[in-house]
Write a structure and sequence with these properties.
The complex is a heterodimer. Chain A is of the alpha/beta class. Chain A contains seven helices and seven strands, in the order βαβαβαβαβββααα. A seven-stranded mixed β-sheet of chain A has the order 4-3-2-1-5-6-7. The longest helix of chain A is centred in the middle third of the chain and has 10 residues, at about 95-105. Helix content of chain B is about 30%, strand content about 15%. In chain B, the strands form five sheets. A five-stranded parallel β-sheet of chain B has the order 5-4-3-6-7, with helices on one face. A five-stranded parallel β-sheet of chain B has the order 17-16-15-18-19, with helices on one face. A four-stranded parallel β-sheet of chain B has the order 11-10-9-12. The chains are: A alpha/beta, B alpha/beta.
Chain lengths: ~190, ~450
């Protein structure tokens, strides 16, 4: 994963709540076995509706509970492939939020009125190290788990980080692992 | 200090701060190919194939094909064949198309007995919450996490907050677990559980069958919850006992300790009056847009509601019982178990599906299918005019040939009524198996409490 820190640029606006991952990337595109190339299918059905306007900017500002529904990581893959580097919303669905942080698409939680100010401003800059967002006429700070932040800033590979604790995993398996079920033992 | 059920399972699996050991990793064809590919590129192995199990479900045609190579859709076929190849290469046991154990991943785990109380279970699928019905901590994960679990058998996870939803009173006649969870989502909202592991408690929960408990926990994700769980009890133990992977004898003393201690505190407490819940029908495009069947399509309360009404082509004030249907789907990881099929079959026995309705029943697994056929339920459904299918996710999400046409209105026992979920332009109404069965017969929704 490439390191994430400063993200600056124009803001695309999708002022809707409870946008689910079926809208972000409909199921017919989940049949691909690759990780790339999902951007052109982003919001596939909505994009055909009159009045739809979602320019390819670094930042997406949107509504509450963004990314609810399915656990498909294809949703953040599609957003990133489309060009977004950060998504700003009043809240995110849990799995979606986690999936974003795993690929370096920065999810930023701001208060509802702050998100609307970002939407109106049309331009913003995000500083992950300082956990701040600024826009024309305003600014705000945001919360992020310190460990998640560290991994994003340094662009660390999650598996590599966990394997540094291999001894602890070995010890757990030796001392505390439950005896079953063993899937390979099914006849 | 008094602990919650969630605390106990969490602590028993904490390898290090923020690192949780995974007892069982379930894998399916849609969210795993990129994970296996990354493992391969990094030269990594699957750490514990013996704690991992794969099946094909999302892409599987339910017409009874017996091998992946018979799937007509090329992309679907490649995805299932990729899973088969990956499992062979990495030594992961798999029940693919043609296996008598194939089925929806959240149906086969419990039925094989590999879902047990006190476990941590993950799967690259949001409805993994289903397994919490057994007093397990079961969470849905994304593909990067699938790869992480394959490589390390652990999950990086900050401890979520805890919520208890306590039901007072008992469910009324004709009201099911599906109605209970739909009404709960209607009450707390589709983001009501975000950031929380939810424990369901109270007499209405204790009275539910395991099938009912799985339905409730399954839809925790539709309220935004990280996981749903129910303390195991005699109902659980009886259900697990004798299953293929169940321990002999059951470690009952250990399993009985898996409950929230008296006085343990939750970050959030919610009360729901179960006795007030009526048969539910969704009217909109989120599972929280729901009313009782005796109610009517509500006036829009905001922009989201207006969009939903437009998509659903419904007028506010229309009685739910007047909504006419084109299709009925009984199936999905929410409602495709033998208990669900028995409930539906009982209602349709000796009746005929309305001539205007195309109705299908899709058992959740090949084992459910075989059991239903041994009981003659397939004949009951067929005689009534239902299409009796083979196991898979089917019309829950339309990744296989079972999809609704644009504009078609579906009564569905599945979990999501999102725009386009069951087919582009399709209009989904989520209901219980009983409500779906009755709707198939009448061609519109009916209050089954009076219909029976």
């Amino acid at each position: 994963m490439r390191p994430v820190n400063l993200i600056e640029g124009h803001v695309s606006v999708l002022d809707r709540s409870d946008v689910d991952t079926d809208q972000i990337i409909p199921k017919q595109f989940l049949k691909r076995v690759e990780r790339t190339g999902f951007g052109e299918f982003l919001f596939y059905d909505w994009a055909k509706q009159p009045g739809w306007d979602l320019p390819r900017n670094p930042i997406l500002a949107t509504g509450r509970n963004f990314g609810c529904g399915s656990s498909r990581e294809h949703a953040p893959w599609a957003l990133e492939d489309y060009g977004f580097e950060a998504v700003i919303a009043p809240s995110f669905a849990d799995i979606f939020y986690s999936n974003c942080t795993k690929i370096g698409l920065l999810p930023v939680v701001l208060a509802e009125d702050e998100v609307h100010a970002v939407m109106e401003s049309g331009h913003a800059s995000i500083n992950l190290a300082q956990q701040s967002v600024s826009w024309t006429g305003g600014g705000a700070s945001f919360e992020i788990d310190p460990e998640v932040k560290r991994r994003l800033l340094e662009g660390l590979d999650d598996i590599g980080v966990t394997l540094q604790q291999q001894d602890a995993i070995d010890r757990f398996e030796a001392e505390r692992e439950r005896s079953g079920p063993v899937t390979t033992a099914l006849s | 200090m008094a602990k919650t059920l969630f605390d106990k399972i969490w602590e028993a699996h904490e390898v290090a701060d923020g690192l949780l050991y995974v007892d069982l990793h379930l894998v399916h064809e849609v969210t795993s190919p990129q994970a296996f590919e990354s493992l391969r590129l990094a030269g990594r192995k699957v750490r514990r194939p013996d704690r991992t199990l794969a099946t094909a479900d999302h892409n599987v045609p339910t017409d009874g094909s017996t091998a992946a190579e018979q799937i007509r859709d090329q992309l679907s076929r490649v995805q299932v064949e990729t899973l088969e190849r990956n499992c062979e290469e990495f030594g992961v046991p798999i029940y693919s198309i043609g296996s008598r154990r194939q089925g929806i991943v959240h149906v086969i785990g419990p039925e094989l007995g590999i879902t047990q109380p006190g476990m941590t279970i993950v799967c690259g699928d949001s409805h993994t919450s289903t397994h919490g019905a057994f007093g397990a901590l079961a969470v849905g994960i994304g593909t990067s996490e699938v790869e992480h679990v394959l490589a390390t058998q652990t999950l990086q996870q900050r401890k979520p907050r805890s919520m208890r939803i306590r039901y007072s009173g008992e469910l009324g006649y004709g009201v099911t677990a599906k109605d209970l969870i739909l009404a709960t989502i209607g009450q707390i909202g589709v983001a009501g559980g975000v950031g929380h592991v939810v424990e369901y408690a109270g007499p209405a929960i204790e009275a539910l069958s395991m099938e009912g408990r799985m339905t409730v926990c399954n839809m925790t994700i539709e309220a935004g919850g990280r996981a749903g769980m129910i303390a195991p009890d005699d109902t659980t133990f009886e259900w697990v006992e004798g299953r293929e992977a169940a321990p002999h004898p059951l470690p009952l003393e250990e399993w009985r300790a898996l409950r929230t201690d008296e006085g343990a505190s939750f970050d959030t407490e919610v009360e729901v009056d179960a006795s007030e819940v009526s048969p539910q029908v969704t009217w909109g495009t989120t599972p929280g847009m729901v009313v009782g069947v005796t109610g009517a399509v509500p006036e829009p309360a905001g922009e989201g509601d207006e969009r939903a009404l437009e998509y659903m082509a419904l007028e506010p004030g229309t009685p739910m019982s007047e909504i006419r249907l084109d299709r009925v789907f009984i199936g999905s990881c929410t409602n495709s178990r033998i208990g669900d099929l028995r409930e539906a079959a009982e209602l349709v026995k000796g009746r005929r599906v309305a001539s205007t309705v195309n109705a299908m029943v899709v058992p959740g697994s090949q084992q459910v299918k075989a059991q239903a056929e041994a009981e003659g339920l397939d004949e009951v459904f067929r005689a009534a005019g239902f299409d009796w299918r083979s196991a898979g996710c089917s019309m829950c999400l339309g990744m296989n040939p079972d999809i609704a046409a644009p504009g078609e209105r579906v009564a569905s026992t599945s979990n999501r009524n999102f725009e386009g979920r069951q087919g582009r332009g399709a209009r989904s109404h989520l209901v219980s198996p009983k409500m779906a069965a009755a709707a198939a017969i009448e061609g519109h929704f009916v209050d089954i409490r009076e219909w029976e």
